[in-house]
Write a structure and sequence with these properties.
Radius of gyration: 21 Å
Number of strands: 8
Order of helices and strands: EHEHEHEHEHEEHEHHHHHH
CATH superfamily of the largest domain: NAD(P)-binding Rossmann-like Domain
CATH architecture of the largest domain: 3-Layer(aba) Sandwich
Strand order of the largest sheet: 3-2-1-4-5-6-7-8
GO molecular function, one term: pyrroline-5-carboxylate reductase activity
Function: Catalyzes the reduction of 1-pyrroline-5-carboxylate (PCA) to L-proline.
Number of helices: 12
Shape: elongated
CATH topology of the largest domain: Rossmann fold
GO biological process, one term: L-proline biosynthetic process
CATH class of the largest domain: Alpha Beta
Strand content: 5-15%
Keywords: Amino-acid biosynthesis, Cytoplasm, NADP, Oxidoreductase, Proline biosynthesis
Largest sheet: 8 strands, mixed
InterPro entries: 6-PGluconate_DH-like_C_sf (IPR008927), NAD(P)-bd_dom_sf (IPR036291), P5C_Rdtase_cat_N (IPR028939), P5CR-like_CS (IPR053790), P5CR_dimer (IPR029036), Pyrroline-COOH_reductase (IPR000304)
Number of domains: 2
Structural class: alpha/beta
């Protein structure tokens, strides 16, 4: 059985560990690192998984999943590099960081797979996009697909598209939460109690998502099916168009893409000329 070490047990790291256990992985096949002792003890008690330091984790595991914030990557790579044996697969869940950063800082020919997951991993409904680095094989990508398939859906994309994926699906849940928040506020404005408004909107969102995924219809067709001539929905849609909501969403996603690019460039200073 493949041994997996998750470096960084924040929300995403913990969600992956939980998903792997639910998919049938034994606790003995998993390791994690965590810099806060109280948090480490809590996770070990909850899941029965061994806490390790970085050196032991990268030496013991076959697959090393890096799940730290981008700003924490440099000291982690410094700790990993002298302890990482050859033949290990490194999987990065770090937003904006290219595979070449890991390949440059880790031992030569290390296989690296870049992943952009999102927070619905917490409920087993993640959307993860994966890209292989220069030394990653099809077998490496297939293994990552299997691992991440335990917490949601997985697609392969060229690494050149990862910044766009980060903006679209990585940040995407936040846009939906933002819209739901605004719609609940609208319900309150119209006199509906907050709890009732939340129930109405959240269930509408769940149902709409199910129609998109299971019905296979184009969103335009689904929207038009709700939009009767001279009805309430078209009156609302007209206001959304007047206020440029569509354009604002496109601009927001472009801005998120640009920020993802910036995060990657912030770690290019030590590249050889």
């Amino acid at each position: 059985m493949t041994t997996i070490a998750v470096l960084g047990a924040g929300k995403i790291g913990e969600s992956l560990l939980s998903g792997l256990l639910k998919a049938g992985r034994a606790p003995s096949d998993l390791l994690f690192t965590e810099r806060f002792p109280t948090r480490a003890a809590e996770l070990t008690k909850t899941y029965g998984i061994t806490h390790a330091d970085v050196a032991d984790a990268v030496q013991s595991a076959d697959v090393i999943v890096v799940a730290v914030k981008p700003q924490d990557i440099e000291p982690l790579l410094d700790e990993m590099a002298p302890n990482l044996p050859s033949g290990k697969l490194v999987v990065s869940l770090c937003a904006g960081l290219p595979t070449k950063l890991f390949e440059r800082r880790l031992p030569e020919s290390t296989a690296v797979v870049r992943v952009m997951p999102n927070t619905p991993m917490l409920v087993g409904e993640a959307m993860s996009a994966i890209s292989g680095g220069a030394h990653a094989s099809d077998a490496d990508l297939a293994l990552v697909e299997e691992l991440l398939g335990s917490v949601g859906m997985v697609v392969r994309v060229p690494e050149s598209q990862q910044d766009a994926v980060t903006a679209l699906s990585g940040s995407g849940p936040a846009y939906f939460f933002y819209l739901v928040e605004a719609m609940i506020d609208a319900g309150i404005l119209l006199g509906i109690p907050r709890a009732t408004a939340a129930d109405l909107i959240v269930q509408s969102a769940v149902g709409a998502a199910a129609m998109l995924r299971e019905g296979g219809g184009h969103p335009v067709m689904l929207r038009e099916a709700v939009t009767s001539p001279a009805g309430t929905t078209i009156a609302g849609i007209r206001e959304l168009e007047k206020h440029g909501v569509r354009a604002a969403l496109i601009d927001a996603i472009e801005a998120a893409r640009d920020r993802s690019v910036e995060l990657g460039k912030a770690h290019e200073d030590d590249e050889p000329a």
